[in-house]
């Protein structure tokens, strides 16, 4: 199961989560949401340590974290 | 697997209408989480002003009233005095509370009105297109100060929390920032305290939160956070500026 889940309808691809992720497993993807933003994707769920730093800095509350 | 982070019940399902990377959303999330943790969502009445903060009624699941520019505290005080058992908070930008609404901020604090005010300070008028605000830093370029703010004609930046901390009726005054996870957690603690102060009926609680405006500052969201740390934090006094003995014992 996904440890980090991006709620793509809220994402505005601001890059703050990509910058803060200690494992560098978040990236701007190639699919856009209905607003036209290319939303963030997690490239390797296995490496996620569920630290929730991405969700803490996300200004659009677009990330759910599971542990 | 257990969900350790998700959208708070204090927020509606509506996506924020702010620009990408604007930390208004972070501050709103913190307020929503605090309301949920204190179990006061249904008893809370928020007051939104004019500006980017004026959208807040769409995003919080508590009741909301839209006030005229700068008058959020005047409306909030009216609501609180007529419905003293409700929790009333105002959510205002610096262009609202530190410019057109300064008199209400000062007098609400002087009278010790039992409301909570959250000020979002991004040193600029965001919604109207990045004009100079009373909180704009010396030398900062805005659309109305294209050569940099000249303090000899337009004044020094107003540090409103420091001003309010001097007034007797204000019992809790804090200046926090949302530029890093550590500071975001500290900001949440300050906001929670400000709501607890009101629940205990102790007096006026004020929290100023430093925020970014990547669009009008003209820099990327990630660089904006760094700009805030380097330029705004040294100018504005940070931390808990005033905590009375009663508040400490909460």
UniProtKB/TrEMBL annotation, chain B:
Keywords: Oxidoreductase. It holds the Pfam family TPP_enzyme_C. Residues 57-207 form the Thiamine pyrophosphate enzyme TPP-binding domain. The keyword Membrane does not apply. GO terms for molecular function: oxidoreductase activity, acting on the aldehyde or oxo group of donors, iron-sulfur protein as acceptor; thiamine pyrophosphate binding. GO terms for biological process: cellular respiration. SUPFAM superfamilies: Thiamin diphosphate-binding fold (THDP-binding). Transmembrane segments: none annotated. PANTHER family: 2-OXOGLUTARATE OXIDOREDUCTASE SUBUNIT KORB-RELATED (PTHR48084), SUBUNIT OF PYRUVATE:FLAVODOXIN OXIDOREDUCTASE (PTHR48084:SF3). This is 2-oxoglutarate oxidoreductase.
């Amino acid at each position: 199961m996904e440890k980090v889940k991006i709620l793509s309808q809220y994402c505005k691809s601001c890059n703050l989560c990509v910058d803060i992720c200690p494992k560098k497993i978040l990236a701007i993807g190639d699919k856009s949401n209905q607003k036209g933003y290319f939303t963030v994707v997690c490239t390797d769920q296995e490496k996620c340590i569920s630290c929730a730093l991405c969700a803490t800095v996300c200004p659009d509350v677009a990330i759910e974290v599971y542990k | 697997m257990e969900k350790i982070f998700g959208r708070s019940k204090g927020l509606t399902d509506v996506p924020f209408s702010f620009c990408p990377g604007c930390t208004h959303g972070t501050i709103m999330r913190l307020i929503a989480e605090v309301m949920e943790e204190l179990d006061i969502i249904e008893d809370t009445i928020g007051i939104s002003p004019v500006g980017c903060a004026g959208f807040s009624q769409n995003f919080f699941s508590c009741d909301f009233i839209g006030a005229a520019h700068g008058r959020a505290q005047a409306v909030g005080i009216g609501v609180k005095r007529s419905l003293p058992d409700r929790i009333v908070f105002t959510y205002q930008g610096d262009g609202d509370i530190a410019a057109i609404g300064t008199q209400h901020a000062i007098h609400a604090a002087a009278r010790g009105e039992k409301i909570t005010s959250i000020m979002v300070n991004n040193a600029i008028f965001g919604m109207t297109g990045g004009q100079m605000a009373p909180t704009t830093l010396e030398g900062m370029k805005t659309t109305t100060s294209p050569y940099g703010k000249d303090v000899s004609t337009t004044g020094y930046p107003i540090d409103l929390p420091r001003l309010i901390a001097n007034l007797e009726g204000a019992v809790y005054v804090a200046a926090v920032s949302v530029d890093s996870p550590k500071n975001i957690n500290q900001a949440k603690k300050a906001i929670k305290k400000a709501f607890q102060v009101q629940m205990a009926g102790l007096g006026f609680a004020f929290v100023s939160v430093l925020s970014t405006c990547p669009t009008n500052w003209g820099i990327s969201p990630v660089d904006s956070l760094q700009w805030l740390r380097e330029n705004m934090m040294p100018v504005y006094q940070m931390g808990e500026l005033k905590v009375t003995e009663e508040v400490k014992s909460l």
